[in-house]
Design brief:
The chain has about 260 residues and is of the alpha/beta class. The protein has two domains: about 100 residues, no CATH class; about 130 residues, Beta Barrel (OB fold (Dihydrolipoamide Acetyltransferase, E2P)), CATH 2.40.50. Helix content is about 25%, strand content about 20%.
């Protein structure tokens, strides 16, 4: 039984990895797009290992017998294994049939937002924004300007930010993104507090249009990014939720 579990786990995990990385875009919920080839290669390798093990052990899997022909697969012999080992199938089958969602408001509400680092000496100043129309911006760029841009290039401009809703305390809420360097395990929170609009449901993806709401002393850690909203629009969730540069088309108004 122990060998059966090992072989089937290899096969299920391999098929699951290929399902989320080769046949769908679900892998983007967990890792950066550049890791797709590695996931595909890992899935193929697991399937090959499982197939080789199955061929070596015979199919259907043969259970070891003693030299007297008696079965040792009663759970207490040398080939047996604890019944709890079957629980190892849970993560394998979850990846295959019910891929967990991307990180969202639960993570964002429990981690402090990390504003982008202040420009070091010798770096160019924040470039000026366009003079007319609404300026689409990433939360990363908006947060950096709101906290560190002492030239206040955000002043007088209407901007558009896209992210998911993170509820705050006492009725406050934030438009948020999670950015990753490698995978969801190293996710960092970017969130901008929204003033002047009722909060849509948690985890709903929205586009917020509005103007910069100065908070704290600019150029210090006391500053925080905030926006006075003039419009909040519900939008579909992007395929790559960790790509802060995604531009999503507006959908129905938020509620």
């Amino acid at each position: 039984m122990k060998r059966n579990i090992q072989v089937l786990l290899l096969l299920f995990l391999g098929v699951g990895l290929l399902h989320i990385s080769l046949l769908t875009d679900l892998y983007l919920r967990y890792v950066r797009p550049g890791l797709r080839p590695a996931l595909i290669a890992s899935g193929v390798l697991l399937i090959v290992l499982g197939a080789v093990s199955a061929a070596r052990d015979g199919f259907p899997f043969n259970r070891p017998r003693t030299h007297h022909g008696h079965d040792h697969g009663d759970g207490h012999g040398h080939a047996g294994g604890p019944k709890v080992a079957w629980l190892l199938y849970v993560p394998a089958l979850t990846i295959l049939f019910l891929a967990p969602p991307a990180l969202g408001s639960y993570t964002a509400s429990r981690d402090d937002a990390t504003a982008p680092k202040a420009p070091s000496s010798g770096d160019s100043l924040f470039p000026a924004l366009q003079d007319t129309g609404v300026v689409p911006m990433s939360l990363n760029d908006f947060s950096a300007r709101a906290v560190w841009d002492t030239s206040r290039t955000l002043k007088g401009h209407t901007v558009r930010l896209t992210g998911f809703v993170t509820p705050g305390r006492h009725g406050t809420w934030y438009v948020s993104r999670l950015v990753i360097s490698c995978c969801a395990a190293d996710a960092q929170v970017r969130k901008v507090r929204v003033h002047g609009a009722a909060a849509p449901p948690a985890d709903a993806w929205v586009t917020v249009t509005g103007t910069w709401h100065p908070t704290g002393k600019i150029g210090t850690d006391d500053a925080s990014p905030a926006l006075d909203a003039t419009m909040v629009t519900r939008v579909p969730a992007p395929k790559d939720p960790y790509n802060d540069m995604v531009v999503t088309r507006p959908g129905r108004p938020g509620r």
